[in-house]
Amino acid sequence: MPRATAASVRTQIETGRPDLIYLITGGDEAEKSELASSFTALVDEELRGFNIQRFHAGDMTTGDKLADGVAAIVTAARTVPMLSPRRIVFVMQAEHLIAPKRESEAATGAVEHFEQLVNRPEPQTTLVLVAGNIDKRGRLYKVLSGAATVVECGALQSVGDGERWIKARAAGHEIDPAAVRYLAEQAGPDLNRLRNDVERLLLYGAGRRITIEDARAIASPATLQDQWAMANAIEAGDPAAALRQLALMLDAGGVPEMILGQLGWLVRAKFPALAPRSVRAAIDAVFRTDLDLKRSAGEPRVLLERLVIELCAGRQAAAGSAARRQAGRQP
């Protein structure tokens, strides 16, 4: 299958004519996550719980687990859609499946089983593999590269690559070529910075032709962000600050699953001391959000915002209880 751009894949999704297998790779985690999420539009929202499944190959750490995981993936792909023309099966961290680190008889059998699915895909299922760095020497990668639509996310090798990325992202907006080139030159190979600059520019120049003066007004050096500011705000019981920091992380290209991992660590490591009575509810909230993300049961931003608010509420309740106990001990 030919290689494709993220923009061309979105066009396929919008027209309802996707290919059967996609391999989404590259170093731009935000672009990969966003593109993968767009496939959910192929299934009506009320039917997604029945027709969308997610698997995480990173959990398949042994040959036996890999064999079980591949069997589940194949079963999901071969299942007839329920009240929908199409099923979507996601395999995240697919590099662990494409090139298993530990070879064994079980792992070899699992790869061969998966190859059978690749060579004879199910016509009513779209299989979406999202991978990081892949060992391209393996047999399965060669099979996939011949059968799947391969999308490379985050490869900016030149100013021209940056210009093409901007034009695709800004489709439907009037923007001067000089502004496009200026942004591409300023960002260089840093795609996260380029994305942030383009998003700010489109907001800044909404409703009119965007000029190079506009580009110069918004383009600025990359700024360091405190990756733990959101967690610190939750510890302080400050939902407004926590939500602001969450928005900054997502706008900067933060991957929802990684942000959820940070929140899970906060609950496990800090809540037993900070909010002992809220630990059980906080753990339940984290697990529910993880499940909702895997099932595509809502927009990732909304799901994470809800979790942040719940965690802040638990911390506030603990702080209020401590304050009341302290007041009761005063003469």
Strand order of the largest sheet: 1-6-2-5-4-3
| CA-based gyration radius | 23 Å
| Coarse shape | globular
Give the name of the CATH architecture of the largest domain.
3-Layer(aba) Sandwich
Count of domains: 3
What name does CATH use for the topology of the largest domain?
A: Rossmann fold
| Mean of pLDDT | 86
- By secondary-structure content and strand pairing, the structural class works out as alpha/beta
Distance between the termini: 78 Å
Largest sheet: 6 strands, parallel
Q: Could you characterize the architecture of this molecule?
A:
- 59% of the residues lie in helices and 8% in strands.
- With 331 residues, it is α/β, with parallel strands linked by helices.
- It folds into 3 domains: 3-152, P-loop containing nucleotide triphosphate hydrolases (Rossmann fold, 3-Layer(aba) Sandwich); 159-218, Helicase, Ruva Protein, domain 3 (Orthogonal Bundle), CATH 1.10.8; 229-323, Zinc Finger, Delta Prime, domain 3 (Up-down Bundle).
- A 6-stranded parallel β-sheet has the order 1-6-2-5-4-3, sandwiched between helices.
- Helix 6 runs parallel beside helix 7 (139-147) and helix 12 (229-235) packs antiparallel against helix 13.
- The longest helix has 30 residues, at 300-329.
- The radius of gyration is 23 Å and the shape is globular.
